[in-house]
Amino acid sequence: MPTSTYRLQIRAGFTLDDAAAVVDYLQDLGVGALYLSPLLKATSGSDHGYDTVDVRMVDPERGGEEGFNNLRGAAAEAGLGVVVDIVPNHLGISVPVENPAWWDVLKNGRESEYAGWFDIDWSRGRITVPILGDDAELSIADGELRYFEHRFPLAPGSWEPGHEPADVHDRQHYELLHFRRGNAELNYRRFFAVTTLAGVRVEEPAVFDATHARVAEWVQQGIAGLRIDHPDGLVDPGGYLRRLREIAPQGWITVEKILEPGEALPADWPVAGTTGYDAMREVNGVFIDGTAAEGFTTLYQTLTGDERSLEEHIGAGKRMVTTDLLPAEIRRMAALVPEVPDAEAALAEVAIAFEVYRSYLPDGAENLDAALERAASRRPELSDTLDALSPRLHDSTDELALRMQQLSGATMAKGIEDTAYYRYSRFIALNEVGGNPDEFGIALDDFHTAQVRRQADQPESMTTLSTHDTKRGEDVRARLAVLSEILPEWTSFAELMLNHSDIPNRAFAYFVAQSLAGVGPIDRPRLHAYVEKAMREASDGTGWVDQDEAFEAAVHALVDAAYDDPELRAAWEALLHRVEAAARSNALGQKLVQITMPGIPDVYQGTEIWEDSLVDPDNRRPVDFANLRGLLAADLGPAIDDSGAAKMQVTRAALRLRRDQPELFTEYSPLTAQGEAVDHLLAFDRGGAVTLATRLPVGLAEAGGWGATTIKLPGSHRDVLTGRTFEGTVSVGDVLADYPVALLVR
User: Fold this and answer.
1) 190-191 and 194-199 strand pairing
2) What is the per-residue pLDDT for 518?
3) Element holding 295 (H helix, E strand)
């Protein structure tokens, strides 16, 4: 069991050998295990690795088998574990020739030895491949069918010299379609709405064994754990995890499972817990001023004219997904119940009505019941259809029920995180993976209750503040949290920005204004790339397939104006100056709380100092490890400056303490201060290690500071950040004189 992890994004620009070269730095930082992004061979040039094409080998672009062996050796010598991210749900098929299993299926159809690997609906007769543009000129070269750079195999005996390429195409086991037809006509399961990621049937024992043979070897070679990507996409997540546990009986296994507030992991999953989005929501929330909710709602509605609730935005986003992105999946399900009229509409309505990602029948049947009831309420004309579908949707052995569980998860993910969270912009600090934008701040008591529960139920679950999937980095959210304390100043800036905006969608203009406040004047191309992705994900004015040039030009013009217009630039810099000290207090506080709270903390690469990352691929930018080494080696003092040394100090101290004295982190007891500033202190005792963190620092300063606020410590303690000692009832202002946080050891 690692005491902590450090996430490294392994790619061609940062290989396994590069990772081995920073093992000594990570050991000195206090890390317990390296946590690696997917390693199996991915599509050439893939920067993320989630598009595995060959399950038999470590990706040569990422360092190959030799690089992985070297890294494991270096980690073992340093006393660090290795945790690997694996992707069981899908394989990459954008370049078919690179995926030997998919290539063979395209070539041999149902007769392929790999046909059972992929979730293909063969009732159409041919595999649909939505790759063509308006110019569908095909050619034949080197015994392959070609479409520009795209290569496809030819079935044995399907081609002789002299035949027209179109005629040869018609004799293949696949049918090349115009790309616009894919969402409606695709006949293989995919990852969400990504046609270049084909679903894998790991529920079949032979497929599981074949696709996990290399993983089993890693376990035998001593890797510490596995991170499971997107288990909700599987037919039977629980069954999959039980099979995985058989090949990794002692491994630390976590799952990328998005839990809605109040939702728990299925009790029979043999895992340590999630990858930490639930913990991230709790930590983010406790540093936000919940009393500002009404003011932010009024401001948002006044400036944007958008009076729709979050629920309405989510409903619209999910409806768009079922209508535009996933009709092929719904049509395939409806074909299982040809005797039921209006089945497509009813099934889509059920998926829209789910308030959690999915059920795991028979577990979670109450969520299915609620979705059916909600669907009938919204669409009473479908009540009879829903009644007819209900028995089969409740039957955990019925293919219809299994596919509904997969459909609801995809609808949630695409409709909420990738659509509604880019449209509803009341306060984008809350619009995060696993977040809840309706939960404007978390009270201290509620935070403590959540940690008591985590310590009791899942003390070895991962916790995190930043991942490769977060919409904005941890320190961006820390800065945005300050806005909840300075509504008048934020209002002035937001009004000025929107007065300079020609974006037809004022809610998105408000989204851009908050993004500027969150990141500051970063390299301009990064911000342009971010707003381009954000507006296309929102699909509310422009989109990925059909761009509105005027809309996009208006968005980019607003970004440029923030940099170039003297009035806007001055207002932007004034706002940043106003929030900077408080933002850094929040950043240090949430970092210390996340590392010391119940669970196994993960540090995303580079976040041991200030960071301003936005959504991927921005958060996969190269990390300057030379700079990090220099900061770590320096004699770190209490200065909280631009270097990020203060955050390095906090991260190092907390990670080292968890590694060197794990017995100090076996309990969780809330600590309460006395005095006028009690609401500004988040404090808890982990069984010998005491965390103190300042919250709502602007309000604290405006009230005159800590004043006579005190806290009673259980015995004599030393602050590992400053070396100072304290005992008994002490002044909070004295303990936090150097930093807005303290880590005290009994």
Assistant:
1) antiparallel
2) 98
3) helix 293-304
Question: Is beta strand 5-8 parallel, antiparallel or unpaired with respect to 600-604?
Answer: parallel
Tokens, residue 614: 């936005």
- For residue range 91-141, list pLDDT tens digits in order: 999 999 999 999 999 999 999 999 999 999 999 899 999 999 998 899 999
| Among 193, 583, 611, CA closest to 417 | 193
Instruction: Write out the residue limits of the CATH 3.20.20.80 domain(s) in the chain.
Output: 5-89+202-275
Question: What proportion of the chain, given as a percentage, has pLDDT over 70?
Answer: 100
Q: What is the mean pLDDT of the chain?
A: 97
Q: Is the pLDDT of residue 74 over 90?
A: yes
Q: Where are the beta strands (DSSP E) in 429-482?
A: 462-463
Q: How many CB atoms lie within 10 A of CB 346?
A: 29
**Identity of residue 566:** P
What is the C-alpha separation between 212 and 357, in angstroms, rounded?
26
Q: Does the bond joining 362 to the residue before it have cis omega, within 30 degrees of 0?
A: yes
Neighbours of 355 (CB within 10 A): 14
Write out the residue limits of the CATH 3.30.1590.10 domain(s) in the chain. Answer: 96-199
Residue 638 has pLDDT above 70, yes or no: no
Rounded CA gap, 549 and 662, in Å?
56
Average pLDDT value for residue range 244-258:
97
The second-level CATH assignment, the architecture, of 5-89+202-275 is: Alpha-Beta Barrel (3.20)
In the sheet that holds 150-153, the strands lie side by side as: 139-141, 144-147, 150-153
CA distances from 308 to 51, 299, 300, 315, 321 (A): 37, 14, 11, 11, 19
Q: In terms of residues, how long is the chain?
A: 746
Report residue 300 as tokens. Answer: 């948002």
Closest CA to 192 of 357, 305, 311, 38: 357
pLDDT at 636 over 70: no
- Residue in 408, 407, 423 with CA at minimum distance from that of residue 537: 423
Residue 160 has pLDDT above 70, yes or no: yes
Percent of the chain with pLDDT over 90: 97
Task: Give buried/exposed letters for 286-318 (b at 16+ CB in 10 A, else e).
Answer: bbbbeebbeebeebbeebbebeeebeebbbbbb
Q: Which CATH number fits domain 96-199: 3.40.50.2000, 3.40.50.720, 3.30.1590.10, 3.40.50.1100?
A: 3.30.1590.10
Three-state DSSP class for 711? strand
pLDDT for residue 469 is more than 70: yes
Amino acid (one-letter) located at 610: W
DSSP state of 260: P
Q: Over 90: is that where the pLDDT of 72 sits?
A: yes
Kindly list the distances between the CA atom of residue 488 and the CA atoms of 286, 292, 293, 483, 491, in Å, as whole numbers in the listed order: 21, 11, 13, 9, 5
What distances in angstroms separate CA 636 from CA 23, 76, 721, one per listed residue? 21, 28, 9
Place of tokens 């992105």: 325
Residue 281 has pLDDT above 70, yes or no: yes
DSSP annotation string for 114-169: TGGGB-B-GGGSSEEEEEE-S----EEETTEEEETTEEEE--TTS--TT--HHHHH
